[in-house]
Amino acid sequence: MTANPFDLTGRVAMVSGAASGMGQAMSLAVAEAGADVVLVDINPEGAQITAQQITQLGRKAVVVDCDVSDSEQITSLFEELDQQFGRIDFLGNVAGQGVLASPTELTLAQLQRVLQQLVIGRFFMCQQAGLRMLSQGRGSIVNIGSLASTTALGRSHIAYSMAMGAVVQMTRELSTEWSASGVRVNAILPAQVTNPGLLKRMEADPNLQQQFLSGIPAGRMGKPADIKGLSVLLASDASSWITGALIPMDGGNTAMNAGGTPGHRPPA
Ligand SMILES: NC(=O)c1ccc[n+]([C@@H]2O[C@H](COP(=O)([O-])OP(=O)(O)OC[C@H]3O[C@@H](n4cnc5c(N)ncnc54)[C@H](O)[C@@H]3O)[C@@H](O)[C@H]2O)c1
Q1: Domain ranges across the chain
Q2: Catalytic entry in 78, 85, 90, 160
């Protein structure tokens, strides 16, 4: 019988942002494919709900309450991983938030917080996972970027875009340094995927959803489960020659060069 290249049985995955949204969907996807999962979030109660679903699949799930902007907490997280599993095969770097502030109003403290979370924290997660994967001679890392990694959004997203741009360059550099040693590093760049924060912003601005949809030829917003297939592909041997890739998950937005805010003109 031919081996299933998507099978993750016996693999250990770690996913940040595992309590909700795309991090939760990614955690469930790799568990459904056979992996045990370390669930990382600042909302451990939410992550426990993800853990219960994974346990019901017959896989092991360990919840770690960890803020990915804090390097000491990340160090403890990997100590816990070493104790519980002694290896890591897949890291999904999903957690991390921006701040909405115009270029003239953004404070340096706000910018530093965003860069700490999305760039420095994620780099440290990659470094900790990478050290272990390099010594194993195998591993896969996925960083979540955004349309803001490659196009400007406007709408006071300056800090987020600066950080997400750095995330794709980090992905390319790590892939270039590590892929000869068996460690692949890729990025998924989603367009608008519904989450509680986005739903609130769309409620406050009734035109916003229509504006987003005008840049999505597939005709609907993303949903967290849209990340499941790509997650299994990138975590598994099915993608063994895919590294350094920036993969749009955007209902066709990038192909039509629509960007994150189609038709937007900044106020004069
Ligand atoms: N939703 C979108 O439209 C979209 C598009 C492109 C990129 N992204 C990016 O994808 C990632 C996930 O987005 P989502 O929509 O699934 O978000 P979400 O709000 O549904 O979930 C985020 C999760 O991360 C956790 N979290 C937040 N800060 C954390 C921290 N410092 N340490 C650990 N956990 C933390 C939250 O508790 C939550 O469980 C984010 O980085 C986001 O910027 C989102």
Answers
A1: 12-190+231-248
A2: 160
Q: For residue range 180-239, what is the model confidence (pLDDT) as tens digits?
A: 999 999 999 999 999 998 999 899 998 889 999 999 999 999 999 999 999 999 999 999
* Exposure string over 83-96, b if 16+ CB within 10 A, otherwise e: eebeebbbbbbbbb
Task: Give residue ranges with CB within 6 A of ligand 1.
Answer: 16-17, 19-23, 40-43, 46, 67-69, 94-97, 117, 144, 146, 190, 192-193, 195, 197-198, 224
The whole-model pTM stands at 0.97
Answer yes or no: 160 catalytic.
yes
Q: In sequence order, what are the residues at sequence separation of 6 or more whose Cβ sits closer than 8 angstroms to the Cβ of residue 35?
A: 8, 9, 11, 12, 13, 59, 89, 90, 235
Q: What is the pLDDT of residues 134-147, one digit of tens each?
A: 999 999 999 999 99
pLDDT of residue 168: 98
> Which listed CATH number (1.20.1290.10, 3.40.50.720, 3.30.420.480, 3.30.70.660) goes with 12-190+231-248?
3.40.50.720
Q: Whose CA is nearest to atom 30 of ligand 1?
A: 67
Cα 21 to ligand 1 centre (Å)? 7
